[in-house]
Write the structure tokens for this entry.
Amino acid sequence: MSAPPEPPAADADADVDAPPARERAAIRLRLVGTAALAGALIAAVWLAAMLVVGDFAGSVETTFALGSLAFGFGLLGWSGAVALGRGIESMQTHLDTDTGWTERDARRAMARILGFGLGVMLGATVVGSVVATIA
Amino acid sequence: MSTETTTTNETATDVDQRGLIDRLTASPFVSRLLSNRLALAGIAIIVAMVVIALYARLFLDLEVITQSQLGTNPNRAAPSLDFPFGTDGQARSLLPRVAYGAWYAMLFGTVTVAASTVLGVGLGIVAAYYSDVTDNVIMRTMDVLLAFPSLLLALALVAIFPDDLGLWRAVAALTLVYTPRFARVVRGAALTVLENEYIDATVALGAADPRVLVRHVLPNCLAPITVQSTLNFGLAIIDLAALSFLGFGAEAGTPSWGLMLSNGVSQGLLTGVWWWSFFPGFFLALTVLGFNLLGDGMRDALDPRMREAVD
Amino acid sequence: MISTRFVLKRLLLLVPVLVGVASLVFSILHLSPGDPALTIAGERASEEFVRQVEESLGLNDPIWVQYGRFLLDAAQFQFGESFIIQRNTAVREVLANKLPVTLELAIYGQLIGISLGIPLGILSAVKQDSITDHLTRIGALAGISVPIFWSGPLLILLFAQVLGWLPTSGRISVLYNVEAIRVTGLVTVDTLIAGNWEMFVSAVRHMILPASVIGVYSMALISRMMRSSMLEVIRQDYMRTARAKGQGSKITVLKHGFRNAMIPVITVIGIQFGGLLGGAVLTETVFAIGGIGTLLVEAIKVGDYPIVQGTVLTFAFLFTLVNLGVDITYSILDPRIEQ
């Protein structure tokens, strides 16, 4: 997964002193947004290459499907982290098998994957419909 | 203290000069393991199964046996001196088929475990070494995969692969299902090794990333990887058989334990032909128990710092 | 105490879970080989007919349109009609018929697992390293090692064929017509509601073996977890203090330790519910009980995509619901972790 490097500003919200809601929303948006942008770019470049060499229509389908795979996976992981996060964290503390898992890290990783998938889907949609209208 | 630390404290040449046997017997891991009676029982079971598997592969030709039995054997005969495990619905003696099943279980189990070990080791070490975003994205993805019920995930993955792959389709699906377990173990172990000052010194001396990983991190993660592989071997054998049992694994006619069980249950059990499903299942369960006993013993013998990641 | 708002907030999580699962199902169906139109039309259908079917399924639309439509349909739990397994029956209807079967099996299996696993785990922890402890641990290990599709047949062999105490397969004796008294779809409940004692006994007798097979497996996991969790609690300081104060050690363990030790165990119970559903697939096959587990396997085999979609979403829904329940129980057991 080629998620972009984390912007240094995002690290500032170490959850210790929770930043105001608006700031948090902005950070989240940027996290998902950067990943989505990366996804859209990759999808666009790949499909452009396919337009020249290979089966374009089939590639749009496959790319979109792969995007929805990442999106669905990220979304599922995100909700899983939110739903079970406290349970798993506490279970690990109780059992002394601390693997360094935290709900916050999990949510962030999943937001990246989800955003990336969303970007790929959007990229495929845009490139696909543009090419369809031209052709 | 454990092998891990002792090895890291010595220079590389020291380690190379000592014989393999010496190193093994000197290892507290091995001596602790060998003093565990249950683990020894596990080893005995596994060795016996490997011998059966190799014997079947080398000396039994099922084609020839089936041909020679055609028309002469009784159908669904109860176990007797002639047919110690009885015969199945196609009048084939079950004994050689069950023995051959050991070969299939070992072969496909080994491939599955080996493939997921390689994938998992790669991902885990990369995650541990590069930390931060890479680590987080890789490991959290593995966590989500781990949260899926393994059999249901395997069923979903099996659907993706074309069905003319036969048992290899199940192997591919299960490899993906097991990879996260190895990634998690390896990452945990690698982090413990990386915390060691020795690695810092190596990095400071200018060793390139891949060299540090291969020369120093990987060898010190071998013990937990072996434990996880052993525990996973049993699981792989069960799951491969389960997929065959549900009709997603071995092609019809393959002497795999899962398929024999499936046929035995659906065609023989209700009419009293118990041996058709009993023997394949018995060998399957025994093999799995062997791996679980050994794996459990190995985990207990492991350095506590390494133990927590293995489950 | 937990508030209604907290529960509602948790329930809201079902939305992203189901959208996520629906997206996964969508992508897997599009990535997997196999052509739904060809499956419906049949291998020998004319090309024109196949194209007609494609048109009616909307397979010619751009993939993003298909995705949007799929999500909308999924939101209403509308998956169209089964292609093959029950031709021309709405997927919803097929699932409504089969779901209670699996639910019943899972509930009884889980009950057996919990009611045996927890006491065994505690016993094993309190008498650590005694013979009881060793036996329990080996038993648990054996419970995990023996595959359901072998222990099931063994139990059938022993209890149904050799001893003749219990029936071999099915949900209730073929003499009775359960459909006539269907209310919940759970046979053990329906027969009670109908007040027919003989039918109830028959249903219970049919349930014992399959539920035990599933239950033993979950017992093995729960007792292992309970043991380690209990040991951890016993080692903690306040337990030692309590013991130093002169309270009998066993009573102390039960009084102070249990509540705390239950917290991780409950998480495990929730997470392994998924494994239970997987086990249900195998158990239903062994005991010839037609639930959604066998339905899923059949649908994947023959390529009945609407059924696959519906079943997978149902599984995800159940799994999430159970785990949200676990999360809520959690807050009751340990108020400190309430946000």
In short: The two ends of chain C are 12 Å apart (CA to CA). Chain C has a mean pLDDT of 79. Residues 4-91 of chain C form one domain.
